[in-house]
Fold each of these.
Amino acid sequence: MSRSMQIHEALQAFGLSTDDHDILGVSTLEQAGPHDLCFAEEAGQAAAVARSQAALILVGEDFPEVPGTTLLRVADPRDRFFEIAALFIPAPETEGIHPSAAIHPEADIGADVAIGACAVISAGVTVGSGSHIGPGTYLGPGVRIGSDCLIGPNVSILRDCEIGDRCILHPGATIGGDGFGFRWDGSGHRKVPQLGRAVIGDDVEIGCNSCVDRATLGITRIGQGVKIDNLVQVAHNVTVGRHTILVSQSGIAGSSALGDGVVVAGQVAISDHVQVGDGARIGGQAGVVKDVPPQAAMFGTPARPVKQALREHAALARLPDLLKQIKHQQETIERLESRLSRLEAGQSDA
Amino acid sequence: MSRSMQIHEALQAFGLSTDDHDILGVSTLEQAGPHDLCFAEEAGQAAAVARSQAALILVGEDFPEVPGTTLLRVADPRDRFFEIAALFIPAPETEGIHPSAAIHPEADIGADVAIGACAVISAGVTVGSGSHIGPGTYLGPGVRIGSDCLIGPNVSILRDCEIGDRCILHPGATIGGDGFGFRWDGSGHRKVPQLGRAVIGDDVEIGCNSCVDRATLGITRIGQGVKIDNLVQVAHNVTVGRHTILVSQSGIAGSSALGDGVVVAGQVAISDHVQVGDGARIGGQAGVVKDVPPQAAMFGTPARPVKQALREHAALARLPDLLKQIKHQQETIERLESRLSRLEAGQSDA
Amino acid sequence: MSRSMQIHEALQAFGLSTDDHDILGVSTLEQAGPHDLCFAEEAGQAAAVARSQAALILVGEDFPEVPGTTLLRVADPRDRFFEIAALFIPAPETEGIHPSAAIHPEADIGADVAIGACAVISAGVTVGSGSHIGPGTYLGPGVRIGSDCLIGPNVSILRDCEIGDRCILHPGATIGGDGFGFRWDGSGHRKVPQLGRAVIGDDVEIGCNSCVDRATLGITRIGQGVKIDNLVQVAHNVTVGRHTILVSQSGIAGSSALGDGVVVAGQVAISDHVQVGDGARIGGQAGVVKDVPPQAAMFGTPARPVKQALREHAALARLPDLLKQIKHQQETIERLESRLSRLEAGQSDA
């Protein structure tokens, strides 16, 4: 079925006759042209809707009327919009197996696999069916890639690491770098051999230039459904539970374990050997230095419960004035003391 | 004109006869050899000038005399120095079109373009005249590169993204990675399709291993003349105004908009959907969680006006002693209360 | 000598007859199979030892008895374990010189050098004997690599930079990017030419996607034995002393100088033109804005002595309650004042 027919069907499923609409794309209200589909969620967007050139705008049931626009009222306009938008996802950038790819004869390449130009596939690699390996990407000896993965360009996956099914790795991601471990031998830092692996579960996405190090021994494990943003660091022997989210530039130090459904915001640091419970939420730039209970919301460096941290910040904002008040109180107390002494002297005189 | 003649001319333009100077390079005072040009700005550098082996040292009009050295007095020694230093910038590392580059026949490569070994140029790419594409760099389908750009090695620019004229992209920079957007569907994070693009203006520089994500819809836009340092994250749908500076390891979350001439220092985090006004200055490691007015100077997490933040930090430093003082005051107050009660009892007795 | 014989000898050196043990690997207690060697350091691990399937477990002299396991008591079980574990380090991933590598005829490649597929070696490069250059890695004109280095895949080392002997560079590391220097010329940021180099000493390790910029003039210098983790930024003209450690996502701004044996923890920012003395320890996420004396331990933003910072944080946690106490004191003082005034009035009446 062609994409335009799919769009047609999707809109008809919303009860719309689309004979008069020729939707060729999806866009924002501001940037839409006369063949674009858009959505608006909040009544406050009515002016933007009025200004938009969009062909058709999905809105909620109670969105205000906007004369001169074609609104389609649906229960959940954002979700409906993105369902249709998904039809516009372009095909993966890499197609077929490029003749310049260096594929070792002992690699096992599945059906319908695409491998980009100048990709390098080592001995003992397995690539599951339907996966795409980007140009310039390196797969080290013994690497296993599941099915239907999209591995971007210039990715490096080092020896013996495993990637699950339906994973997406963005450009420059690095899996299986050595853990950062050294012992001082009296004259220099001796390297602790890094003999483990990194194992990435199914349905994981890893952002541009992010790093997941191999374990010293055993496995650095990223659970099923985990989403990792750009420039994130996951150190050796870390365990990340299922469906956990690591936002950009966050870092998890060695041997720490995050539960399921944790949300780690941007630029968070989690120290080594820390346990973070299921469903915990770590606020932006927090520094976690000890265990976090399940469902807890933490903030600050060192990280503490977010309510406490906000109360402290509010109190801190009052501190400069407080210093003046204390000084004033001190003077008052001293005056009181003098006055009291005089009174006492008077009484004893009496 | 040869470089040595250019140097000759530049020095003569400062009124210097250069017959006795054979300047072959530029350097620091400490590391200069007998054929290097240097500069010194402050009188405090006189000892370093005396120790230097430099052939010639540009100094300000009021720099002290330093016997045994050749000083050239000019109005702005740093600027004059770097004008001459610019003559020593080596040619770009990539020349010609390397036979190992994988260039799609439907790519449009301008005049005098250089393409490095193992670079990969996809269908529909346009590269403007005089641009250099580094070895191992990937340009996805439909990418447009302006004229006179320097794209370093191992850069990844994904489908449909645009780079203006005279841009410099350093190694490992990644343009057009998917925005980080998901919706929870009850059993997992469903990917929000990332259908927009990233558009980089003219005269932009982007540092090593920095990332600019494509928009979910529409455009992630980097304005003309913006300078981005290494390891910086710019998320989906961000707008960065003209001549704004993003220092190393800073991160801008989704849909935030920075004005013109903003300075974002190192390791700053700017939350999503935040507006930062023209000319604002965000101090190192700050965490911006709400809008920042134009020209404001902010510091801390959460970010607040820098004067307030510094006053709070100064007050915080006094807090431990303050706790003792409060305790002491409390005791004094209690003693006063007892004494007062005794007095009151005495008076009522009287 | 085969690896199994080496293991045999190593265990015999500990006084163990190994006839009954066929050690084929090393692992953690939890993940070990029946042919793995493990170690345990603390008595608290006795239960994990009991559960482990390991063939043999190195423990300290005073480790408790654990029935049903084979314990080997040694003085320093961790060190002994990793000495044996080192026998299991696999060979480097890159072997031989791949025909797809683009090696300039004017490059000087030493004996026993391995160069991966699609690596790009420019004119004037020198690679010392026994070094391995990963697939997709770029060495710019005039780059010098010492002997016995392991340069990973997709690394970029730009013109004229130098790497010492026995260095390890992990995937995506970038050496010699331009320093981040600009001057405002009234209409835009003019690039300050970056004419220096980066020079990396012997025995240095640099993590995945980390960046060391070239100097504006002169040299950005990484001392012998320095260990740099992933995603670290080292700016132009920085000097890092011998055996200093930079943990993941830390950043050192331009022209700062770190002494020998400094430890910079994760996500630390060190401002430009700062001196950090030998043996200083900078705690995670600290922001160093002024010089740090040798051996000092610093924490917080702005960084201050760790004891002071912790005292301040403890005091801050008490601040919200303190505000209430101050308010209460204020009321008490005012009451005292009234009572005192009444007394004084009574006395003057008397």
Amino acid sequence: MIQSTSAPSTPRATRGKFRPPALGDVQVGGFFGPRIDTIASVTARILLDRCVEAGMLDQIDPDRPGPGLRIPFQIGNSKCTTQMFWDSDLAKSIETAAYALYRKRDAELEARVDAIIDAYGRLQAEDGYLNSWYQRVDTKPRWSNLRDCHELYDAGHLIEAAVAYYQATGKRKFIDIMMRYADHIASVFGTEPGKQRGYCGHPEIELALVRLARATGERRFLQLARYFVDERGRQPHYFDAEAAVRGDDPADYHFMTYQYNQSHVPVREQRQVVGHAVRAAYLYSAMADIATEFADETLEPALEALWAHLTEKNLYVTGGFGPSPDNEGLTFDYDLPNDTAYQETCASVALIFWANRMLGLGPNARYADILERALYNGALTGLSLDGTRFFYDNPLESRGQHHRWIWHKCPCCPPNISRLVASIGLYLFGVADDEIAVHLYCDSTAELKLAAGTVRIVETTRYPHDGHVSLTLEAVPAAPFALSLRIPGWAHSAELLLNGEEVDVAAVTHDGYARVLRQWTAGDRVDLTLPMPVETVHAAPEVGADQGRVALQRGPLVYCLEEDDNGGKLNSLGLAATGGFVCEEVPDLGGVVRVTAAGWRETPAEPRALYSAMAPNRARAILSAVPYYAWDNRTPGEMLVWIRQEGM
Amino acid sequence: MIQSTSAPSTPRATRGKFRPPALGDVQVGGFFGPRIDTIASVTARILLDRCVEAGMLDQIDPDRPGPGLRIPFQIGNSKCTTQMFWDSDLAKSIETAAYALYRKRDAELEARVDAIIDAYGRLQAEDGYLNSWYQRVDTKPRWSNLRDCHELYDAGHLIEAAVAYYQATGKRKFIDIMMRYADHIASVFGTEPGKQRGYCGHPEIELALVRLARATGERRFLQLARYFVDERGRQPHYFDAEAAVRGDDPADYHFMTYQYNQSHVPVREQRQVVGHAVRAAYLYSAMADIATEFADETLEPALEALWAHLTEKNLYVTGGFGPSPDNEGLTFDYDLPNDTAYQETCASVALIFWANRMLGLGPNARYADILERALYNGALTGLSLDGTRFFYDNPLESRGQHHRWIWHKCPCCPPNISRLVASIGLYLFGVADDEIAVHLYCDSTAELKLAAGTVRIVETTRYPHDGHVSLTLEAVPAAPFALSLRIPGWAHSAELLLNGEEVDVAAVTHDGYARVLRQWTAGDRVDLTLPMPVETVHAAPEVGADQGRVALQRGPLVYCLEEDDNGGKLNSLGLAATGGFVCEEVPDLGGVVRVTAAGWRETPAEPRALYSAMAPNRARAILSAVPYYAWDNRTPGEMLVWIRQEGM
């Protein structure tokens, strides 16, 4: 079983509160190390360069002439432009730079970021307000259109950037600016008399405020985050009211329904993932955070139902979601077209955020399996191997027209995937008072702080190229603690050795994690072996386009055929009904395990006919597949994930 | 071979000029008879009712208060509304009513049409101008935006309606109005000094003027039609110039490129079908008319290349084209998705017009085969069996969400398919001075006028239910003439008897027509037998979505699976690799030949999993298919044309 469909077992609140490690706690090598190095040395600068080229510095720096409207109003009839959220694009680029600086000191990069922060310092209003669009371009009043204008969303990304930059450099200026702004926001929004009961059309500030609270220890930011989550979707509806104040007809809304921004009903009443994919997963991330931080069990029925709805009926095999470009989001159940799949890179990134936060209440493969699937496939494909080009939308089949962008008029994805990969160490572990969960396997060194003291773990593995993982606990506290190792859903068996002696995996595994609770000794070694045969994955019968076809998966990696290896017309190829797969590690594409398989190629009986009553001829062929994340890094051409299979 | 890909053989101009029969020449029974009766008794009234409900009469009748803007500006950023072409919708509804009246006298219907014509008479300006949008709603100058505003397109449909109404009723009022308007148009547009060198963004008036010329014998309308065809796409570009006059930036065009309206280059330089599908085929129809009427061979290279490009790379198996809703037209070669196929009903109708006119230079199955494919499938599906509901876009796969409309904010398709079916007699035959071509087979009686006299043909057939066709020539002229019988491309063999004696079909067949030239005798009988086994049709390997699948075709009819017969999840079904088809004529759906076949149904190994490493289980099943044109006339549900096949 690839997709966990089991309901969660024991009430999770009993397992304690799991939080990600701090930025400095994990040093990443192995598979992700070179990707992070590329971001540190190449991508972080490129992101800033392209933000500058777009005109973003002209917008935020009050000492420069304003940029005016650089990107025409264009989003439907809503008089919106992606320029409204330039602050967020710049913020995610700064966040990426922060992780890059943590990876590798770079005085020039740091100076560039400091200069941007200085400009934000000069831009910030007396009362703490800070939004370059409203302060420098738009003449409409602040907070007059929360539904469409991304004002709080911008604030959220600036907060996340400030937290990261503070953690990476120790410099307080940016986080101080943003705490001041957050306090201003708290003075404007809330349930208290005289405050507006607003919230953002694009969720983001909620999860950012939780990060700010965790980084600063200031619980008031958690309260504000909880307000935004709780208020969403209540009646009378805020977006109706603010439209009326603007003199607009609330019904004249380009996206027709508030499902688009998940404010159609209060969050605790939501059961189906709807609307814009990124907005959805950012909101659910915040809901999970609030559930963890406040031990608020009233959010769990919604979160569990939403998770089930997404993963059981609306998730691509690559871990992305949202098939439609029209709303950048959901349509109807099992609508998972391949060649037109939107599956925005940001949606996979957002799903990783959500899954990661669902692990806050305890390790559970129900969430970690999806996190891993989204990370290695739908998200990672968004960044070229050389760190210079980006995918926005991610089809699972291309007839040769789909290629990476240098930049995009809505450049949300490039810094989003970059900040994720650059901070991937935060996702490897979950840390509770007396338990360490290993969610993802990657060669790394971690120093993780339990209540009783620090655990130093040296992890050695070539994962995901092979499934051997060795963990040595170089330093341990004097008290017992649990080490919970994820047994991925794709692994049909697992072997676990503790200091060379076999552990009964089935006996110690709960919710997909093998849990070893003991008094550890420095030098203890755990060896986990996860067999990685190539699997042929079948989709549920409701997914029409995938029937008669299989996806190839090895470990967490979904594979694809590329024209570069197989020639064109990839739908003329098929896999033999039986027959082994050959796996070979090759240096191409940054080092991948190439999968080859026996199959066939069809040629038409009537070569020039568009339609023919004569069946095509078949000849034997060898099919050659590479990981989906690595596609479109060579000669541009066709690509195919769901491959025909004989007898299917 | 299903799709004719052969190049045209002998220069076609040698075969003479073939024109459709006149409206009164053919009495249709058989398959189409009941459909026409339904239009006459039901659809013609419904179309007028719905035009009235929409407000169209308020717009054309100067004695009523004007309707104002009833359909908001909405087409991209172009400040257009479908209300601009209400004249055309009403005109096609009048044209349908004309054919209905010819079929069955109906005083009430005729009085309603006369009242509309009277209103148009009152509306017509002193100088002959007639456009209800510009005269009654829009305040902008006439002829200020030919690119977007459909002014000449409206005129074209009114002309076609006037011709039909004159031919059906003998009343001259409408055709006189439209001749006056055509003369006014000729005074405004042309190459002479002082005239505007404009043409319409939506071709239509060109073919309408040819019809007007043929109906009236007035050659000046042919000249005007030729001017519009010749002028299109020349530089300096008229649409650039008129935009500048309006004060608009010509580059600020919602559809980006003049390929959208086929004015990107002069028509003789066009080689690829591009842009909006209906505009394209209407233009090519006019080009074929001009080629025929003026024996203009300079248009043929373009027409032949365009035909080949459409039929060899861009045609659905159902004879429709234009996959994309974005431009209601073409995208790139072999882009033929099934579940999102736009394949507008009007595009299939327009292709029938074009194919019909390509037959003007002589019978050739290269055109007639496509005409028949489009007629019985992509076009006919647009009209419900009861004549009350309509398809606008026509996917080849539906997951249950696609159903017929009562009406549409752009109601072009309902009267278009209705006028086509109601006038189908015009498409059965092509008539030259000394030759009759039988393009389509249908139970009918025809009186066709050759140079030497009239031929009366009584055709008896149950086509397309079976392939036996019997023609008795009840009256013949004293001079020899040729009877050319189409041998459809789908027929792998054909038997032809002349007065009971076998004719060597291969020996007399040229360009797909068996041609019998002789001195005929009254009472001569020709029997043609076309075997109709069920064929499995394979698509070229470039059409990715169709690989591993087949379409079922019997005679000219493409079949589909419907949920009503097969249960849901149609992509879980497949056809056995071998195994006969059972054909059974049933009374359902107005009388169809149902096709059943041995196959299987898959059920997932893990019922609730979205993805599974376990292959599904297969159980034997019988698949039951009905003609595509008849789908969505029962319980709403799924539909599928391209069916999985074992071993494919």
